[in-house]
Write a structure and sequence with these properties.
This protein is α+β, with helices and mostly antiparallel strands. 31% of the residues lie in helices and 27% in strands. It is built from 9 helices and 15 strands. It has helices at residues 3-18, 40-56, 85-90, 164-169, 172-181, 190-199, 212-215, 218-224, 251-255; strands at 29-31, 37-39, 61-64, 68-70, 75-83, 96-103, 106-114, 119-124, 129-133, 143-144, 157-159, 184-186, 204-207, 228-230, 243-246. The protein has an 8-stranded mixed beta sheet, with helices on both faces. A 5-stranded mixed beta sheet has the order 12-11-13-15-14. A hairpin with a 4-residue loop joins strand 8 and strand 9. The longest helix has 17 residues, at 40-56.
Length: 258
């Protein structure tokens, strides 16, 4: 099977682990050194992904949120087993498994599977970005994604996760000034903000503090849909400590405000 097919099958297996435990509270929650929560569901999903990738792509390296790195190969799978663990713990359906494959700094595949929302997004380099129903709802015919054509910041919809990080890592006053300039703001949060940029329903999404595994799967989906993804300094890709995704038309202007 090719890389995208493998990633989609891995997403099926991840959904089969996380979704039955969502809202059952049949999981153990502990606190990591960075004071963020982790559940044994996060760990079970990542362990499954590590095992399956080792079997199907033994020459590739691996990097995950919960158990770190394995191998040194340029081809590297980067995963977040449950993005939105706080949501998962509280019964909020905005959580997803993020699966990406990179060759060095070049994104090859990205899959974002949100089973409690019933949605999945995927992309492969040069082949576009798509949305389907989650596997548990039958999948369905993929719908190709295209970012919006909004070119004026005053007409733009902006999504973010929270204001806390902007106070501790960036200039919150400057960010709030940006929210005053756009047409609409909503805190959809986490992966969902960026998938809405790819769908064209949101025009700008940004966060001041992110990890590689938070962003790696998002980048190919946003860019294959015609958008731009950089850090807040304008460097392309998920390798900074923060992220900005736009429809491309607004990107340069938004960078001056963050």
């Amino acid at each position: 099977m090719d890389d995208l097919e493998l990633a989609l099958r891995l997403a099926d297996a991840a959904d089969a682990i996380s979704l039955p435990r969502f809202r059952t509270h049949d999981f153990h929650v502990s606190t990591k050194p960075d004071l963020t929560p982790v559940t044994d569901a996060d760990q079970a999903v990542e362990q499954m992904l590590r095992t399956e990738i080792a079997e199907h792509r033994p020459d590739d390296s691996f990097y995950g949120e919960e158990f770190g790195s394995r191998g040194q190969a340029s081809r590297r799978w980067i995963v977040d087993p449950i993005d939105g663990t706080k949501n998962f713990v509280r019964g909020v359906p905005v959580y997803a498994t993020l699966i990406a494959l990179y060759d060095g700094k070049t994104p090859l595949v990205g899959v974002v599977s949100a089973p409690a929302l019933g949605m999945r997004w995927h992309a492969a380099a040069g082949h576009g970005a798509y949305r389907t129903l989650a596997a548990g709802l039958g999948g369905g015919e993929p719908e190709r994604l295209q970012v919006s054509t909004v070119s004026d910041l005053a007409d733009a919809s902006l999504s973010y996760s929270s204001l806390t990080g902007w106070a501790s890592h960036r200039d919150r006053v400057k960010f709030i000034a940006l929210t005053d300039q756009v047409w609409r703001t909503r805190a959809y949060g986490d992966f969902w903000s960026y998938m809405m940029v790819a769908e064209g329903t949101v025009d700008v999404a940004c966060e001041p503090e992110l990890e590689l595994y938070d962003m790696a799967a998002l980048v190919p989906i946003v860019t294959e849909a015609g958008g731009s993804f950089t850090d807040l300094g304008g460097q392309p890709g998920p390798f900074g400590a923060n992220g900005l995704a736009t429809n491309g038309l607004l990107h340069t202007e938004v960078l001056t405000h963050v």
